[in-house]
Amino acid sequence: MTHIACLTFDFDVWSGFAARDMQTPTPISRGEFGLVAARRILSLLKSRGVRSTWYVPGVIIDTHEADVGRVVEAGHEISHHGYSHLVPASMPPEHEEAEMVQAIEAIRRVSGRAPRGYRSPSWDLSPVTIDLLLKYGFDYDSSMMGDDFTPYFARRGDVVTVDAPFRYGTPTRLLEMPISWSLDDHPYFEFFRIGQAVMPGLANADMVLENFLGDFEYMRRHSDWGVLTYTFHPYVIGRGHRMLMLEKLIDRLGEMGATFMAMEDAADTFLSSRAAA
């Protein structure tokens, strides 16, 4: 029995705020706290011997290369998270491809190799994203929610209309490592006021911890093999009381028998077990 926990960090810093036209000093500084928090997170991961995956926009590498370099030096996987934090579904195809190439080169420069994995900013793929990921040699994506702890192969060519049955496209070789908003720190913890909309956030961290542990316990009870992906943002999880929650999460998962892996290692493990079956 193998139950894998992937700790992943979207190292957006200020790029997500800038992409949402929140470019005044306070929201930018809110994102910059992620640079402080990253050092805390790296220290915690080192103390627990956990290798993780960091999804980093290319613009953050180009602006904060030394900070991203510390993640590389600590042995963590660096994966693709766009160049800017603009949503691919909002871009013309040629813009999306140009950003994909630009970010690949930034990751290659800071880590010494091309990224194997991709996570879409805001988890919203365009109609051409899967084709681009295949074209540029990616092994896995982590942007979709069609399962919870079982990887599957991403499709291309789905046809979705309001008034006709869904038409399935063709599975590809691109492995999907599924995610969920319920295992993401951002909607639980971040307060936003955008226009007339308010996202309250600011949840009690120990109550969120119960949710995070509960999904792992369900996987453990109902499957002999599985991989559960947790998504964190350094500027979110790096606040003091949430760092205590992250520490508790790692320790409790370890007590429950979790095997911690970077996403690329979990993907390889899945593919190897499938080939051996």
UniProtKB/TrEMBL annotation:
GO molecular function: hydrolase activity, acting on carbon-nitrogen (but not peptide) bonds
CDD domains with a match to the protein in the record: CE4_HpPgdA_like (cd10938)
GO biological process: carbohydrate metabolic process
NodB homology domain span: 25-261
Signal peptide limits: none
Gene3D superfamilies documented for this protein: Glycoside hydrolase/deacetylase
InterPro entries: Glyco_hydro/deAcase_b/a-brl (IPR011330), NODB_dom (IPR002509), PgdA-like (IPR037950)
Function: Is involved in generating a small heat-stable compound (Nod), an acylated oligomer of N-acetylglucosamine, that stimulates mitosis in various plant protoplasts.
UniProt similarity note: Belongs to the polysaccharide deacetylase family.
Protein name: Chitooligosaccharide deacetylase
Originating organism: Acuticoccus mangrovi
